[in-house]
Design brief:
The chain is built from 11 helices and 8 strands. The chain has 303 residues and is of the alpha/beta class. The chain binds 3-methyl-2-oxobutanoic acid.
């Protein structure tokens, strides 16, 4: 079925109609194509890229150039979902002008439709500056991984009355500054439900329970691409890691046993071309004449 490109008004319409919004991360062309084919509404080229692909312990070291390369690959693969580029640490916190420039790179160089940044009231003037430049912004409150050391670890946010109130005010401030939606990460489900009720723009939850307008997961977690820790909120819809190890081990076994590649994976040269080629060689060297496919072993062997 022909699908249409997802737009901001479509995301807002879903909120108003109470239709769930789906979002997943992608960092490369093949996952981007698969996410698109699955009919997901939005793709986040998240700075989680730094952890799940580049192997950093946090998202903090990720650079703008790394994000642009990943975003370009995703844009080549995904045609229908709304594409959101995640501004990495220190590309928007220092100066709103620098933030506008970096947000603009996602749009101009990588074909993103919007950008995401982390933070509440303190970042609202920056959200305003970016939206004033004509760039759509998604906010992100609750557990904001770029501030993980300030937050004292990967803990649930908004768990006291005071923190819950601050989180609501932060989300409202982002909306007032022009954010088209707000990610709520690792906050109590009731609080996420209340914020969702109070906001006119959609909330997208990750570890925020079922009452958000939409859900986002890190695709690598959903696919079970790791043999390491999986966050409580990340449901594994597949366990690909052991399947990958099995496939790689089988490849090694077959190569070791000369069982791969077979004729099926090899390329031929016509006999007359081969003979002509051999005549260009030293014809007294017998070894050349015996290079041919070993049909009995059904494997490309030189003997
Ligand atoms: O970087 C990311 O993947 C994110 C999601 C967890 C929302 O910010």
């Amino acid at each position: 079925m022909d699908r249409k490109k997802v737009t901001l008004p479509e995301i807002q319409r879903k909120k108003e109609m109470g239709e769930p919004i789906t979002m997943l991360t992608a960092y490369d062309v093949s996952i981007a194509r698969a996410v698109d084919q699955a009919g997901i509404d939005m793709i986040l080229v998240g700075d989680s890229y730094g952890m799940v692909v580049l192997g950093y312990d946090t998202t903090v070291p990720v650079t703008m150039d790394q994000m642009i390369t990943a975003a370009q690959a995703v844009a080549r693969g995904a045609k229908n979902p709304l594409l959101v580029g995640d501004l990495p640490f220190l590309t928007y916190q220092v100066d709103p002008l620098e933030a506008v420039r970096n947000a603009g790179r996602f749009i101009k160089e990588a074909g993103m439709d919007a950008v995401k940044l982390e933070g509440g009231r303190e970042i609202a003037p920056t959200v305003r500056a970016i939206t004033n430049a004509g760039i759509a912004v998604m906010g992100h409150v609750g557990l904001t991984p770029q501030s993980v050391s300030k937050l004292g670890g990967w803990r649930t946010q908004g768990t006291t009355a005071e923190a819950a109130r601050k989180l609501l005010d932060d989300a409202l401030a982002l909306q007032a500054a022009g954010a088209f939606s707000v990610v709520l990460e690792k906050v109590p489900d009731r609080l996420a439900g209340l914020v969702t009720q109070r906001l006119q723009v959609p909330t997208i939850g990750i570890g925020a329970g079922p009452m958000c307008d939409g859900q986002v997961l890190v695709t690598n977690d959903l696919l079970g691409l790791f043999d390491r820790f999986v966050p409580k909120f990340a449901k594994q819809y597949a366990k690909l890691y052991p399947l990958i190890v099995d496939a790689l081990s089988e490849y090694k076994l077959e190569v070791d046993a000369h069982a791969f590649p077979t004729v099926e994976h090899s390329f031929a040269i016509k006999d007359e071309e081969w003979d002509a080629f051999l005549r260009t060689l030293d014809e007294t060297d017998e070894t050349h004449a015996h290079i041919q496919f070993d049909a009995t072993a059904d494997a490309a062997r030189v003997y």
